[in-house]
Amino acid sequence: MKNTYYIFFTIILLVACKQKNNLEQKHVISNVKIADTFHIPKKQTTILNASNRKTYIYKWWRFLWRQGINMEKFDPLANKLINISNDDKNIPRLIDSAFVLLKQIQEKPIFIEEIKGKHEPFNNIKTNWNFYHGYDGSQNGFTTDQGPSTGQVAWKFPKTNGWKAAPILIGNTAYAVGAGSDVIAYSFEASTGKVLWKGQQGSDSFYHNSGARYTPEITDGKMIVRSGRNSYFFDLTTGNLELSLKIEKNAKSNNKNGTYAFAVSNKYVVGADKITGELVWNVTPEAFISGEPVSDDTYTYLSGTKGDYYKINKITGKTIWKKHLNVPLYGDLSIGKTLVYIQGKNGNLFAIDKNDGSVSWEFNSKVPEERAYFYYSQGVEKNNVLYIGTASKKIYAINTLNGKLLWEVDTKDWIRSKPVLVNNNLYFASLSGEMVAIDISGNTPKTMWSNKISDHGIMANLAGNKSIILAIDNNMWMHGINPNTGQEVWRESVLDGQWVDNKFYASDEITGQQSSPTIVDDILYIAGPDGFLNAVDVNTGKEKWKFELASNVSPSPTVAHGMVFVGQTYNSYNEYYALDKNTGEIKWKTEAFGPVWISPVEANGLMFLGNMIGDFFAFDPLNGDIKWSYRTANDTPYKDKSLEFKSGHGWPPGVYCNPAVEGNVVYTGSWAGFYYAFDQKTGKLLWKSKTQPDSTLGGLPDSSAPVLHKNYLYVQKAGREIAAINKNSGKIEWAWEAPVGFLQNGTVAAHGNMFFGSAVRQVTTLPYNATIFAFTDVENGGKLQWQYKGGGGLTAPVITKDKLVFGSSADPFMTCLDPKTGNVIWRTYVGGIMLESVPAIYGNKVYALIKNGYLYAIK
């Protein structure tokens, strides 16, 4: 996609606010100017450019929608855009009409009004919310607590997807990958932050095309970016996309141009031709890859979690040597002139001779941090000294000739990013968002300056020179820092969007966050794609402790027996943990459970859990021993298929429904297409109920969790319906179908004689029409009572006796309604959506993980 096809245009934005409620609107005019940085094609839409132009339509829509602008006027066009193919003869006219309408909306925006509720004195009753969507295992989302009355934000805690892709600095030009589904590459003027070009993959869906997540490779006038399973080659000067291809493990090419090496998830390392992108070689260690491999001009070095480490010829893929250490190896490698530095677990650092693989020396930190999965950052070497950060809140200077500690500097938090060395100044950043500069010219380091540059931590390696220091934080902001003073010179997001009144609104989209908060004894627990479980004081919003899982973590933490239970999801090392709820200390861990998407529930002294390969099982919460297990692929056409077999969405038949419990029965669902009821003690299958169409190979039921209410299990059916299954017989006795084209994949809430479900239109590309539906329960006819456009979707409501509280998969608001009438009690702008994550109520507050980088406490 050639950048010469696009121009910048400037639009005068007449800001109008506010909207009194869903329907009643009024205008307040003020003069605000913005520079619209969308690249809009000069020519009208044709079949040839329809796909790209539709992507811009979606991005422009998101930019307006994230500001809280009412986009209802666009709904009819949105529906048509979603349903039309890019080669339909009518699409050019439709897209051009969409541009006209979006321009009209931007020029005369109507903002959805925030509504403040009436203050209620707090009755000081707080009930633990220790499971996903509740406290008693029914998952009905109900609490007897008071709940939030005003909608006022009490505090925000930084929690986002995390970011490990480092910027590359060459002279006064900086290169960075992009986080969104469309823009995946950037070139900046390093001194000013001016965007020189953006490189696009041209996708409108974060579900099908996630953004980039890895440090780019700069070689032969190209910037090579990995996004999902694809590699993209951008011209370093213009940003033009010159090549894209899928990363295939078993493809082979005769290499004539040299290679670049990288890890694919944590399973294997490949060498790809740096001109054609084709795979030249791959190496699969006997265990998981312990961290990012490192390379010099000729060789690549990598390590595995079981103690093996390797030297690979980067051109041919031939193993030069393979050695073994009798300790687990975890963390990124560092490379020096003659040594490679490999991390052991919890403080071991081994200096490996590049030539023969022998251990030159071993360094052991005297300050362990067992809650860290990776102890050291990558290090930088100069003049026989290795400078490296630690999870024990220290920077070490280690003599590379003998492994002796020369000095150490205390820091305020864990160091995850590789420091940068400019002349005699060392710069480093921590997970608190603080950056520090120290003068290392003498025998004793001296602090030059310290500055907190972000609410979010910094995990990506730093880059810098004598003019600028670059850091990208966990919320995808790149900061340009003056190396002499520590002052921020500029900041720009690597998620595409633009500024309005000094506030940034993203137009691109990132992948979702799934974990939901749980709360016990005034401590909130939340996990996420950043690879951390955080324990947060609910009164102050301050972190009590954190535990690193390294993997993307989708499950909500479960709290029982004085422990927090949580496991790994994508890029998993197959480790599951029970932690002390007060300290984060490991009580036990196991590799027997496999990767997990969901949370366990506790009943009658057992925990119940399912994994992403289709096993559902009971385990002992005190030691992790599995008591019984059921394979959900049993009695399906694919029961004998290998777990490596792929057939689109739905295989393997993973368990993606959080289980519910009542009495001696546990209920769950699986991508195999069924809901199940098991005897808790024995694992005996009591019944199973098919809820997906016969034409579908699995993939349903998905992450909508079953909810127990009175005599029924309320579930998702076929992605379009809410169904009520008789909890004793397994028979479906009631169903409601969502409007045509809507997705139903959100957990319901239930209390008294009512239950509350939701549905949403096209959540992964152009999300709109997220709607809450209120029903009488099945015992009272299952009749629709009211509906509210502006909440729900993939997320779920939570409920007290007089408040229904929810976020939205298609609206940047948290909302509270009267559950009897659907009238708004309060509505608060939070600037982001919720996907599978659901809120939690504790005392007089609701807690919600919003897809804008923060967990909100609202009172």
What keyword list fits this structure?
five-stranded antiparallel sheet, 69 strands, 859 residues, mainly beta, 5% helix, disordered N terminus
Structural overview:
It is a single chain. 5% of the residues lie in helices and 41% in strands. Mean pLDDT is 91; it is low at 1-37. Strands 58, 59, 60, 61 and 62 form a 5-stranded antiparallel β-sheet that branches. The protein has a 4-stranded antiparallel β-sheet with strand order 4-69-68-67, with no helix packed on it. With 859 residues, the chain is mostly beta strands.
Residue stretches low in confidence (pLDDT < 50, at least 5 long) are 1-37
Major beta sheet summary:
5 strands, antiparallel
Which range does the strand content fall in?
Answer: 35-45%
Secondary structure category: mainly beta
Helix fraction?
under 10%
**Mean pLDDT score:** 91
Count helical runs. 3
Which overall shape is indicated by the principal axes computed on the Cα atoms? globular
The strand count comes to 69
Rg, rounded, reads 27 Å
Distance N terminus to C terminus? 48 Å
What's the quick description here?
The protein is mainly beta and 859 residues long. Strands 58, 59, 60, 61 and 62 form a five-stranded antiparallel beta sheet that branches. The longest helix has 17 residues, at 50-66.
Summarize the helices and strands and which ones pair or pack.
Layout: E1 6-19, E2 29-41, H1 50-66, H2 75-83, H3 91-107, E3 111-112, E4 153-158, E5 168-170, E6 173-177, E7 183-189, E8 195-200, E9 217-219, E10 222-227, E11 230-235, E12 241-246, E13 259-264, E14 268-273, E15 279-283, E16 294-295, E17 299-303, E18 308-313, E19 319-324, E20 334-335, E21 339-343, E22 348-353, E23 359-364, E24 380-382, E25 385-389, E26 394-399, E27 405-410, E28 420-422, E29 425-429, E30 434-439, E31 446-452, E32 463-464, E33 469-472, E34 477-481, E35 488-493, E36 497-500, E37 503-506, E38 518-520, E39 523-526, E40 532-537, E41 543-548, E42 558-560, E43 563-567, E44 576-580, E45 586-590, E46 601-603, E47 606-610, E48 615-619, E49 626-631, E50 660-662, E51 665-670, E52 674-679, E53 685-690, E54 707-709, E55 712-717, E56 721-726, E57 732-737, E58 742-743, E59 749-751, E60 754-761, E61 768-776, E62 784-789, E63 798-799, E64 804-806, E65 813-817, E66 824-829, E67 840-842, E68 845-850, E69 854-858
Parallel strand pairs: 1-3
Antiparallel strand pairs: 1-2, 4-69, 5-6, 6-7, 7-8, 9-10, 10-11, 11-12, 13-14, 14-15, 16-17, 17-18, 18-19, 20-21, 21-22, 22-23, 24-25, 25-26, 26-27, 28-29, 29-30, 30-31, 32-33, 33-34, 34-35, 36-37, 38-39, 39-40, 40-41, 42-43, 43-44, 44-45, 46-47, 47-48, 48-49, 50-51, 51-52, 52-53, 54-55, 55-56, ...
